[in-house]
Design brief:
heterodimer, A: about 1000 residues, alpha+beta, Mth169, Chain: A, Phosphoribosyl-aminoimidazole Synthetase, Chain A, domain 2, 60s Ribosomal Protein L30, Chain: A, 4 domains, 7-stranded mixed β-sheet, 40 strands, about 35% helix, disordered N terminus, B: about 260 residues, alpha/beta, Rossmann fold, 9-stranded mixed β-sheet, 7 helices
C-alpha cells in the first residue's frame, strides 16, 4: 500500500544516523536549459540587463538514515533521467555544490518556504519509501548561477524573478542546511479574547489585529452576545464568527439592504440579489411550470439543472483574485482546484466534465516604470495564472474548453481570475442531507497552516504592503491529491456511503462543518485532524484553508466501508467529529472544549448591512461621423484585430488539455487550420449519447464606463448568442453571474452594481434564461503611495460582470462552426445594426470617448434566436459567427481567415437601410447579430424562416482576399494573411 | 463468435484517460476492467485473467520528478515478473501518452543495456504542455496494433513527449528493426522534412510511437481514444469524415489479434 503521508511526515525509525543528501540535476549540454530560458524570457520585463546569463539546475534534499550508495541508487533509479541529464550528489553543504565560475559569480538557491505545499517532494518521498529506503523528509530546490549584477539588479533577480517571497525563500551562496525542519511540538493553551469590557476603538483594534475584517457594528453585536453569555469568546469562536460573517462567505453587501437611487427615483431592497437575480429565476421557473428544468439554484455549492432523463448538470464559477495578485501560479492553481471541489461537493457529488477560465489583466506590454509599487508585472501575472490553471486542470483530467482574457490598465493591482467548472451527476444524487449522529469525516489533503485568513483577506482591499502582510493567505495546490479524492468520492457516492458532502474552501473546516451542521449541531475533535507538520494550534486547524480537503457526513454503520474504499486508493480519511442534535457548534481539543457557539447566532446573528447606492447617468456625447478611405478602414480593422482583447489567445488555449474525457465536439480553436476563434465549445459529457453542452461567456467592461445597465445586458446577450451560434437551444440556456467590483461602501460604486443587477433581471426574464449560481468579489481596489509625489492613490477596477452560459444541444450532429466552408455559398447578416460605437473597440483603438453604448432589445432578440436555432437545427446553416468586439468587419475577417476562403461583401442596401456611415456599420458593436453562411440551395428556406431578421450581404470566394464594397465603391480590401497575422501575432509568445 | 478479450485498464493516482480509453476498447469489442495499481501490487496474479494490458494517459503521480517516472518505478519493481510473463504469453500491452512514458521509463519497451535505458521521452522543445492535432504515418509492419494502418490524424496533449535516444546508432537499429512504428508527418501524409508544429515536440526521427521487438507492446504519445467518433475530428463541420475515427482502428486491431 502506498503511503499517503506528506513530505514532512513523522519520522521513520532510521536505525542509522540521519543525513541530509543533496542531489543536483541539470540538462546535458545538447539539451535546452528550460528553467534558465524561462527566467531569461521574463528578465526583460523587469528591466534586467540584456547581457544577463543564467544557468539552472533542479535538485532534491533527502533526509534519512541513508548511506551514500543508497542515496546514489535513489538518484539514479528515481530522480535523474540519464539519457538527457547529469547529476551530482553529496552531503548538503558539500564544497562541490558551491563552485561558481568567474563569468557567473552569482549563486542562488530557491526553496519553498517551510509549510508551503511541495507536490514534487511529497511524491518523491512516497516513491523513495516504496523503493524500500528509510527517508524521513524530502524538499525540492532550484539552483541558479548568474552573471555579475549590481546589488539592486540582484535584488530584482532574486525577489521578483527567481522566487516569490510569499511562498519561497532565496539563499544566496551555498546551501548550509543541517536538517529539514519538521515543525515544533504544539503546546496547548486556551486563548480568550477580551471583548466584553472594551470600548469601540478597542473593538476595532481587535478586528484589525486578528485580521477579522469585521465592522464596528458587527463587533458590537458579538460583544453584546458574549455579554449576555457573561464570558469572553475564545479565539476559535471569534475566528469562526468572522469567517461565517465575511463578505466572501455571506455576501452581506449584495444580499443586504440597499437604498438605490437613479434617474427613475429611489428603490429599497431588503435583499438586493434576491430581488433581482434570484427573482428572475423564480419568475422563469413559475412561468415554465411543468417545463421547468432547474433542479437546485442558489442553494448548493453549484447550481443544478436537468441534462437528460438520467443526469443533471451542475455549474459554478468562482473568483480567486487576491491570491492571484500576490502569487499568480498558486492563486490560479488553488482557484481552479477550489471550483472543482465546488462541483464535487454539489448534491452528493458531481463528476467534473469541463472547465472555463476567464482572466483580466493590465496590458502585458505595460512599461516597468508605469507600474505602481508593490505590484507584479502583468506579463508575469498572466504567465503565472495560465500556468496555474494549466497544471491543475490538466492533471485533474478536466478539459478546459472555454475562456477569455480581457486587458485594461485598471486591472494592474487587481488582476481578476474567474475559474468555472461543470459537473455531471445522476439525477437522484442531486440533494444532500446530513443527519444527526452522522460522523464528520475529512478526506484528502492534510491540514497545515496554509491560507490562514483567506476568507477575511479576500474581503479586504489590497495595498502595496499586501505582499508582505498577507503571505499566509497564499497557497499552492496539489492536483493529484484532489484527483485521488475525486476518484474515491465518485465511487463512494455510487455505493451510497454518505449522506452529505461539501468542500473545504474559504474558512476551511469552520465553513464546511458550520454549513453542514447549521440545522443540526456539531461536535468537532480538532486534535484528530491529520496534520502536515507539528505545532499547529487548535484555532489554526479549524480555520486553515489547506487545499484538497472535503468533509463528508457518514452514517456510523458505513464508516468502515467508506474508510476501506479510501484506503484502497491511498486516500487518507479521518473521523474528526459528529453531527449532534444540539444546535451548538462545539469544538474540542484533547477533550477540552475550545469553542461552544450557537449555530443560530453564527448563521442568523449578523446585523444586516445597510448600504446606499446612487447612479447618475452620464450625458451622451455623439461621435462625429467621419469619412474613412479604404486604406484607413483597413488600418482600423488591423488595429482592432491586433488589440489584445480581440487577438488570438492560442498561446493560452493550446496549453490547456481541451479534449481529455473524450467528449470534445466543438473545440475552442476551429477552422481549416484549427486556429480560428470558435464562439463556444461543445462537449458530450455522456460518451454513448449525442446530447451536448455548449459553454460560453460574455463580458465587456468598457461598456460599463458608459452605462452598467447596458454592459450587463450586453454581457448576457453575448454569452447567449455565443451559445446559439454553435447550435445550442436558446430555450435551454442557464447562466451564471460573477460581479467583480470596486469599493461598494461608496454609494456611486454600489450604484453601478445595482444598475447592472437590474439589467440582469430584465434581460434574463425575457430570454427565459435562468441564473442558477453566482459569486461576487467586492472591494477590488489597489492603494499605494505614489513614489514621485508622496500622494496616496487608489486604482479601482472597472465594473466587471462575467456572464457564463451553459446551453443544451439536443444532437451534436447539428452543431456549426464559424469558419467559412465553401466558395459560392451566400453570406447573410442576422440582426439589426445600430450606431453603437460607444465603448467599442473601434473607439478603443482611436482613444475616442463618447457615442452610444450597445443596447439589447430582448423581445426581438429572443424571437431571432429561436428562428436562428431552427435554421441551424434544420441544417440550413454552414457556418455562423456572432458579431462582438470589432463588429461586422472583425467577424467577417475571422470567418474568412479561419476558413481560408475569401469573402466579397456589398453593404449598399444595409447602409441605405440603416443610414449609417460605412465606419459605423463596419465597427458598431450592436448586440444580437450574426453572420451566417448558406448554401445556394438553402437560401430560400433560410430567408423564409428568418424573414425580416436577415439580409444577404455577400458571397464566399475562392480567393485569398476580403473585399467589402458599397455598390461599386471599395470600402475595405485586404489579403487574408495580413488579417490573420495581425490577429495572431500580439499574444504569440515563446 | 469468439469470447471477447479482457482488457485491464491500469489506473494510478493521476491517471485520467482511463474512462474514455475503456470506452474505446468496449466500442472495439473488448471487455474492460479498471484496476488500481494498489490492487495490482497486492494481487499481481489478477493480470492473468486478461489478454490486453493498457496504461492510459494522464499524470500518474502528478508526473512529479519526471513524467511517468514513479509508476514506471513501481512496475519495474514488484511487477516486473508478472508483466514479463504476461507479455511472453503472446498478449498485448498498450501505453498511451503517460502510459508510453511509463512503458519506456520502466524498460518494458526498450530493455536497458549496460549503460541504462537506450532512449526516453523528455520535455517538448517548446518547454510547454501542448494540445494540438497531428498527422501521423506508420513505419514498418511489425506492430500488431497498426495492421493495415498507413496514416492517422490524432491529437497530442503532453509536455514531455520528445523522443530522444542515447545515440544515433540506437535510432538506426530501432529503424532497421521496424520499431519506430509511428512518426509525425506532414499534412499531405508524407515523411521528409517535418518541422514544428507538424513535429510538435522535437522528437528525433519524428517518432510519435514505438513498439518492442515482438510488435506486441506499443507506446504512443498521440491519443487514439480521442478520435473514435466522427465528431472528434476537428474538421467534421467542414468536410466529410469517416463513420469512425482513425484511432478506433488501433483498438479494433488489438481485439482482432485475439479473434
Amino acid at each position: 500500500m502506498a503511503d499517503s503521508q506528506g513530505a514532512d511526515a513523522s519520522a521513520h525509525n532510521p536505525g542509522k544516523v540521519s543525513v541530509l543528501w543533496q542531489v543536483e540535476i541539470w540538462p546535458d549540454a545538447d539539451q535546452p536549459d528550460r528553467l534558465a530560458r524561462n527566467i531569461l524570457s521574463d528578465a526583460r520585463d523587469l528591466g534586467l540587463p540584456e547581457t544577463l546569463e543564467v544557468s539552472a539546475c533542479r535538485g532534491f534534499l533527502i533526509q534519512g538514515g541513508l548511506d551514500r550508495s543508497q542515496a546514489v541508487e535513489i538518484a539514479e533509479s528515481l530522480l535523474v533521467e540519464p539519457v538527457v541529464e547529469q547529476y551530482k550528489i553529496g552531503r548538503c553543504g558539500d564544497s562541490q555544490f558551491g563552485q561558481v565560475d568567474a563569468d557567473h559569480p552569482g549563486l542562488f538557491y530557491v526553496l519553498p518556504l517551510p509549510g508551503v505545499t511541495d507536490p514534487q517532494a511529497e511524491s518523491a518521498l512516497v516513491a523513495i519509501r516504496q523503493l524500500g529506503f528509510p527517508a524521513d523528509a524530502v524538499r525540492t530546490f532550484c539552483k541558479y548561477t548568474a552573471s555579475e549584477l549590481d546589488a539592486d539588479q540582484q535584488s530584482v533577480l532574486c525577489n521578483k524573478l527567481l522566487a516569490n517571497e510569499s511562498i519561497e525563500q532565496v539563499i544566496t551562496g551555498p546551501l548550509q542546511l543541517s536538517e529539514i525542519q519538521l515543525g515544533k511540538p504544539y503546546e496547548f493553551a486556551l486563548v480568550h479574547v477580551d471583548i466584553i469590557d472594551v470600548d469601540d476603538s478597542q473593538l476595532m483594534e481587535i478586528s484589525r489585529d486578528w485580521q477579522l475584517s469585521l465592522t464596528l457594528v458587527e463587533m458590537q453585536t458579538i460583544q453584546q452576545h458574549y455579554t449576555q453569555l457573561a464570558r469572553n469568546p475564545t479565539d476559535a469562536e471569534l475566528e469562526t464568527i468572522a469567517q461565517t460573517w465575511s463578505e466572501h462567505c455571506s455576501h452581506k453587501t449584495l444580499a443586504g439592504r440597499v437604498s438605490y437611487t437613479d434617474e427613475n427615483g429611489t428603490r429599497q431592497f431588503d435583499n438586493m440579489l434576491k430581488e433581482t437575480i434570484f427573482a428572475a429565476t423564480v419568475e422563469i421557473r413559475q412561468e415554465l411550470g411543468d417545463r421547468d428544468w432547474c433542479v437546485s439554484v442558489f442553494e448548493d455549492n453549484a447550481g443544478i439543472v436537468k441534462f437528460d432523463d438520467q443526469y443533471n448538470v451542475a455549474f459554478k464559477v468562482e473568483t480567486h483574485n487576491r491570491p492571484s495578485a500576490l502569487e499568480p501560479y498558486g492563486g490560479a492553481n488553488t482557484g481552479i482546484g477550489g471550483v472543482i471541489r465546488d462541483t464535487l461537493g454539489t448534491g452528493l457529488g458531481a463528476k467534473p466534465i469541463c472547465s472555463t477560465d476567464v482572466f483580466c489583466f493590465a496590458s502585458p506590454d505595460t512599461p516597468l516604470e508605469n507600474l505602481p509599487p508593490g505590484v507584479m508585472h502583468p506579463r508575469r501575472i498572466m504567465k503565472g495564472v495560465v500556468a496555474g490553471v494549466r497544471d491543475y486542470g490538466n492533471r485533474m483530467g478536466i478539459p478546459t474548453v472555454n475562456g477569455a482574457v480581457y486587458f485594461d490598465p485598471r486591472y494592474v493591482g487587481n488582476p481578476l481570475v474567474f475559474c468555472g467548472n461543470i459537473g455531471l451527476l445522476p439525477s437522484e444524487k442531486s440533494f444532500k442531507q446530513p443527519l444527526a449522529n452522522d460522523l464528520i469525516v475529512s478526506i484528502g489533503g492534510r491540514t497545515g497552516r496554509d491560507g490562514i485568513h483567506g476568507a477575511t483577506f479576500s474581503s479586504a482591499e489590497l495595498t502595496d504592503a499586501s505582499d508582505i502582510t498577507s503571505g499566509g493567505a497564499v497557497q499552492i495546490g496539489n492536483a493529484i491529491t484532489e484527483k485521488m479524492l475525486m476518484d474515491v468520492l465518485l465511487q463512494a457516492r455510487d455505493r451510497n456511503l454518505y449522506n452529505a458532502v461539501t468542500d473545504c474552501g474559504a474558512g476551511g473546516f469552520s465553513s464546511a462543518v458550520g454549513e453542514m451542521g447549521e440545522k443540526i449541531g456539531a461536535e468537532v475533535w480538532l486534535d484528530k485532524a491529520p496534520l502536515k507538520y507539528d505545532g499547529i494550534s487548535y484555532t489554526e486547524i479549524w480555520i486553515s484553508e489547506a487545499q484538497e480537503r472535503m468533509v463528508f457526513s457518514v452514517p456510523e454503520d458505513k464508516w468502515i466501508k467508506f474508510r476501506d474504499l479510501c484506503e484502497s486508493e491511498s486516500v487518507e480519511a479521518t473521523v474528526i467529529g459528529q453531527f449532534k442534535p444540539t444546535g451548538q457548534l462545539t469544538l474540542k481539543y484533547d477533550g477540552l472544549v475550545v469553542a461552544d457557539l450557537s449555530m443560530h447566532f453564527m448563521h442568523d446573528g449578523r446585523p444586516p448591512v445597510v448600504r446606499q447606492a446612487v447612479y447618475q447617468p452620464a450625458p451622451v456625447s455623439p461621435i462625429p461621423k467621419t469619412e474613412r478611405s479604404s486604406e484607413q478602414s483597413l488600418n482600423d480593422l488591423l488595429a482592432i484585430l491586433g488589440s489584445l482583447n480581440v487577438a488570438s489567445k492560442h498561446w493560452v488555449i493550446r496549453q490547456y488539455d481541451h479534449e481529455v474525457q473524450g467528449g470534445s465536439v466543438i473545440k475552442p480553436l476551429v477552422g481549416s487550420e484549427n486556429d480560428g476563434p470558435g464562439d463556444a465549445a461543445v462537449v458530450r459529457p455522456v460518451l454513448d449519447s449525442q446530447r451536448g453542452l455548449a459553454v460560453s461567456c460574455g463580458m465587456n467592461p468598457y461598456y460599463g464606463d458608459y452605462d452598467p445597465y447596458h454592459m450587463a445586458a450586453s454581457a448576457i446577450d453575448e454569452a447567449i448568442r455565443n451559445c446559439v451560434a454553435v447550435g445550442a437551444d436558446p430555450d435551454r440556456i442557464a447562466i451564471l453571474d460573477n460581479f467583480c467590483w470596486g469599493y461598494t461602501d461608496r454609494p456611486e460604486t454600489l450604484g453601478t452594481l445595482v444598475r447592472a443587477a437590474l439589467a440582469c433581471y430584465d434581460i434574463a426574464t425575457i430570454y427565459q434564461c435562468p441564473f442558477i449560481s453566482g459569486k461576487d468579489s467586492l472591494n477590488n481596489e489597489f492603494s499605494y503611495t505614489d513614489p514621485s509625489t508622496g500622494e496616496r492613490r487608489t486604482i479601482s477596477i472597472p465594473a466587471t460582470l462575467l456572464i457564463s452560459a451553459m446551453g443544451h444541444v439536443s444532437d451534436v450532429g447539428h452543431c456549426v462552426t464559424m469558419d467559412l466552408k465553401t466558395a459560392g455559398n451566400a453570406i447573410y447578416v442576422v440582426g439589426t445594426t445600430g450606431n453603437h460605437l460607444g465603448g467599442s473597440h473601434w473607439s478603443l483603438v482611436h482613444s475616442i470617448q463618447g457615442g452610444e453604448v450597445p443596447t439589447v432589445e430582448p423581445r426581438m432578440a429572443k424571437e431571432l434566436y429561436g428562428r436562428l436555432h431552427e435554421a441551424i437545427k434544420g441544417r440550413l446553416v454552414r457556418s455562423c459567427h456572432d458579431l462582438s468586439e470589432g463588429g461586422f468587419a472583425v467577424a467577417v475577417s475571422e470567418m474568412a481567415f479561419a476558413g481560408n476562403l475569401g469573402a466579397e461583401i456589398d453593404l449598399h442596401d444595409e447602409l441605405n437601410e440603416t443610414s449609417l456611415s460605412p465606419t459605423e456599420y463596419l465597427f458598431s458593436e450592436s448586440n444580437s447579430r450574426f453572420l451566417v453562411e448558406i448554401e445556394p440551395g438553402h437560401e430560400t428556406a433560410f430567408q423564409a424562416l428568418m424573414a425580416e431578421f436577415t439580409r444577404r450581404v455577400g458571397v464566399v470566394k475562392p480567393l485569398d482576399e476580403l473585399l467589402i464594397l458599397n455598390g461599386d465603391q471599395e470600402l475595405l480590401r485586404s489579403p487574408l494573411p495580413d488579417l490573420k497575422s495581425a490577429w495572431q501575432t500580439p499574444l504569440d509568445w515563446d | 463468435m469468439s469470447v471477447k478479450p479482457n482488457v485491464l485498464i491500469l489506473r494510478a493516482p493521476g491517471t485520467n484517460c482511463d474512462h474514455e480509453t475503456a470506452f474505446a476498447f468496449e466500442r472495439a469489442g473488448g471487455n474492460t476492467q479498471s484496476v488500481h495499481i494498489n490492487q495490482l501490487l497486492e494481487t499481481p496474479a489478477i493480470v492473468n485473467e486478461f489478454q490486453i494490458l493498457c496504461l492510459p494517459g494522464g499524470f500518474s503521480y502528478g508526473d512529479d520528478i519526471a513524467a511517468g517516472r514513479i509508476l514506471a518505478s513501481q512496475l519495474k519493481g514488484d511487477l516486473a515478473n508478472v508483466i514479463g510473463e504476461f507479455h511472453a504469453s503472446e498478449k498485448l500491452v498498450l501505453g498511451i501518452c503517460n502510459g508510453f512514458q511509463v512503458l519506456i521509463k520502466s524498460g518494458f519497451l526498450l530493455p536497458p543495456d549496460e549503460k541504462g535505458l537506450p532512449a526516453t521521452l523528455c520535455w517538448n522543445d517548446s518547454g510547454r504542455f501542448v494540445d494540438r492535432w497531428v498527422h501521423l504515418k506508420t513505419d514498418g509492419e511489425k506492430c500488431h496494433f497498426l495492421n493495415g494502418i498507413e496514416n492517422l490524424y490524432l491529437p497530442i496533449a503532453h509536455a514531455e513527449g520528445k523522443f530522444v535516444a542515447r545515440h544515433e546508432s540506437i535510432l538506426d537499429a530501432l529503424q532497421d528493426n521496424q520499431q519506430l512504428a509511428i512518426k509525425y508527418c506532414n499534412p499531405d501524409g508524407q515523411n521528409g522534412q517535418v518541422v514544428f508544429p507538424h513535429n510538435p515536440n522535437g522528437s528525433q526521427r519524428h517518432v510519435a510511437g514505438l513498439c518492442d521487438t515482438t510488435g506486441r507492446i506499443l507506446g504512443l504519445m498521440p491519443h487514439p481514444e480521442r478520435h473514435i467518433e466522427p465528431t472528434h475530428h476537428p474538421q467534421w463541420t467542414r468536410q466529410e469524415v469517416g463513420e469512425k475515427g482513425d484511432g478506433l482502428v488501433i483498438f479494433e486491431n488489438a481485439i482482432r489479434f485475439f479473434g
